[in-house]
Structures are given as C-alpha cells and as structure tokens.
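Protein in question kept underneath.
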Amino acid sequence: MQSCPSCDIELPDDLKFCTDCGTPLETWEGLKHCSECETENSGLAEFCTNCGIPLPKKKSTAAEVGEGLAWIAVGVAVLLGIIFLWVFIVLITSDLS
C-alpha cells in the first residue's frame, strides 16, 4: 500500500494517481534501479535506500526539452534583433556624415 502525499489516504501500489484528489503518486515517476546492489527504488529517490549510492537522474521529457529549445529560440531572436538594430543605427548615422 502507498499513501497519497496530498490527502494522505491509503491506496493500492499499482495506481499512478490518487483516486480522491488526482495527485500523481510516486509510482508515476517509475522505479530507479540501483546498479550496485540491484535494489528497486522509488522514482523520486536520489540515493539508493539499501546501499546509499547516488541513483541515475531522471531523463528530460520531450516537453522539457521543447521548452528549453523555445527559450533558446527567443534568446537568439532577441540577440539578432539587437544586432540588426545596431547595424541600422550605424548605417543611418554614417549616411548623415
């Protein structure tokens, strides 16, 4: 049995979401396998509960990667805008001379 982190009711281990409040449960993150002692740990654990070694980090989801790429695209667009503005100002001021 597992308990919901939000409403603290007892739930079967095979559920991914709480049946009362809809909160994602630990099993939703999947299990992390310890390469040292072969123990299966909670997907939220950062260290093995049996031997204490660090567990592998969660891989980025496609949505997280896409969000990161969107911010990079915004940064590049802003940088290009600044460069074009600077070139435009330099060309206009050089024509006035």
